TrEMBL record:
Keyword Transcription regulation found: yes
UniProt lineage: Bacteria, Pseudomonadati, Pseudomonadota, Betaproteobacteria, Rhodocyclales
Sequence positions bearing 4-aspartylphosphate: 58
Name of the protein: Sigma-54-dependent Fis family transcriptional regulator
Keyword Metal-binding listed: no
Annotated stretches, region: Disordered: 397-430
Boundaries of every Response regulatory domain copy: 9-123
Length: 494
């Protein structure tokens, strides 16, 4: 049963008491909250005090009539639908009512089934409008915020830690491979911090020379160097009250590492050419795709700077270690790119999912995003099919031991899959290969699909091209077969 807040609220307006109360009684029996008003003025007073989903009003009433009430209701509450009921129906008033925004125009004497049907349809329209408005507000509120989509236990644990340290204002070092989403995680920390209303400023420390990086971080005074015609605030100033994200921080030169260490220690800095210290009112987040401890051991990164930045370390796992997130991320990217490109690509074919799940993703999430963007751009229809992926994506799993051998077919070279020269145990490639029984092949294929889908049976069924009931039956059969085999092992031979 719906809660009181979810139950549609209706205001019945009619100057005839019997008609008013009879209609309110009928609507109450239909599950609506029905209030009454005996004139237009009273209805406007009630509309000012409560939110109504529907207004059912008589057309002819003294003072504020039904048409005036309709217009004023639509002006005050665009989400409220108005149904006009009258015993004096004519084409002119019907047209005027519909032009003024009435949901429906009912003639008296009306039939109760008709009223019930119209009221239910109007209530459903209001529900959908309010739901869409709520979703739009949520999307607007989330605009610009990082989206971290995951089903992986390791990632959920990482986000819990990130959300826990976010309000503390301590420095955080994010470690992860290129394309794993380090900046997205940094934005997540920023949005969960006390500095969320302040700016988030990012800079790639490995993309600039020492001189340019110093100028970008600290800014300069007029005349600090040739061409410095005026004062330029740096990014540390620009991020005041917010977060400064130093990406690829281990790529800084030794001299820049010393300068950054001083800022972290003293919480102040000088513009290039400046003599007055400026407070560094900023929270520092840093990231690297290297092993920072190894860089310290090699003498390429200062140990004291490492400890200053490494108050908390967040290690992002590569996409290959969270394969269950691949379908979730792929569908998210598909929706985004389809909307951005104005294309009606709405689904990913099961065969495409198989290819995507079998790929190793050296480029991590960024590579997956590029693959989906390419597929949407090339897709001629509503489905992202395997032929839209670049050649070689997910064609073979790492477990397969095959080599690419050129052969000739009608004079044209082709790639053929042949057994490797050695199987790792000293047996020649020409040695006969054991062929697994069909039932065993099916079992392995289904279990592989389940593994690729991260244990999600609905997705595994989709990848296999079967329904969930069929998958469940096959899994139950595998379990029964396994139990039967165990029982057979315990039975003495006769």
């Amino acid at each position: 049963m719906a809660s009181p807040d979810e139950t549609p609220r209706v205001l019945v307006v009619d100057d005839e008491e019997i008609a008013r109360h009879n209609l309110a009684h009928v609507l109450a029996r239909e599950g609506f909250i029905a209030d009454c008003a005996d004139c237009g003025e009273a209805a406007l007073e009630q509309l000012a005090l409560a939110r109504y989903d529907l207004v059912l009003t008589d057309l002819r009433m003294p003072g504020v009539d039904g048409m005036a009430l309709l217009r004023e209701t639509r002006r005050r509450s665009p989400h409220t639908e108005v149904i006009v009921i009258t015993a004096h129906a004519n084409a002119g008033s019907a047209v005027e009512a519909m032009k003024s925004g009435a949901f429906y125009y009912i003639e008296k004497p009306f039939r109760l089934p008709e009223v019930r049907k119209v009221v239910r349809e109007a209530a459903e329209k209001v529900r959908l409008k309010r739901e869409n408005a709520t979703l739009k507000a949520a999307l607007d509120d989330a605009a610009g915020r990082p989206q971290i989509l995951t089903n992986a236990p390791a990632m959920r644990q990482l986000l819990t830690v990130a959300a826990g340290v976010a309000p503390t204002d301590c420095n955080v070092l994010i470690v992860g491979a290129t394309g794993a989403g380090k900046e997205v995680l940094a934005r997540y920390v920023h949005q969960h911090s006390r500095r969320a209303t302040g700016p988030f400023v990012a800079i790639n420390c490995g993309a600039l020379s020492e001189e340019l990086l110093a100028n970008e971080l600290f800014g300069h005074e007029r005349g600090a160097f040739t061409g410095a015609a005026g004062v330029k605030p740096g990014l540390i100033e620009a991020a005041a009250g917010g977060t400064l994200f130093l990406d690829e921080v281990t790529e800084m030169t030794p001299a820049m590492q010393v300068k950054l260490l001083r800022v972290l220690q003293e919480r102040e800095f000088y513009r290039l050419g400046g003599t007055q210290p400026i407070a560094a009112s900023v929270r520092f987040l840093a990231a690297t795709n290297r092993d920072p401890a190894k860089r310290v051991a090699e003498g390429r990164f200062r140990q004291d700077l490492y400890f200053r930045l490494n108050v908390v370390t967040l290690a992002l796992p590569p996409l290959a270690e969270r394969r269950g997130d691949i379908p979730l991320l792929a569908l998210h990217f598909l929706s985004n790119f389809a909307q951005r490109m104005g294309k009606a690509v709405a689904e990913i074919a099961p065969e495409t999912f198989e290819r995507l799940l079998a790929h190793d993703y050296p480029g991590n999430i960024r590579e997956l995003e590029n693959l989906i963007e390419r597929g949407v751009a090339l897709a001629p229809g509503a489905s992202l099919t395997p032929d839209l992926l670049p050649p070689g994506i997910g064609c073979r799993t790492p477990a397969e031991k095959y080599t690419e051998t050129p052969t000739e077919t009608h004079g044209a070279p082709r790639i053929a899959a042949t057994p490797a020269a050695d199987d790792g145990e000293g047996r020649a490639a020409s040695e006969p290969t054991r062929i697994a029984p069909l039932a065993e092949v099916e079992r392995r294929h289904i279990l592989d699909a389940l593994e690729h889908a991260g244990g999600n049976r609905a997705l595994a069924a989709r990848l296999l091209g079967i329904d969930r009931v069929s998958l469940w039956r096959k899994l139950r059969r595998f379990e029964e077969d396994a139990n039967g085999a165990e029982s057979a092992d315990d039975t003495p031979l006769e």
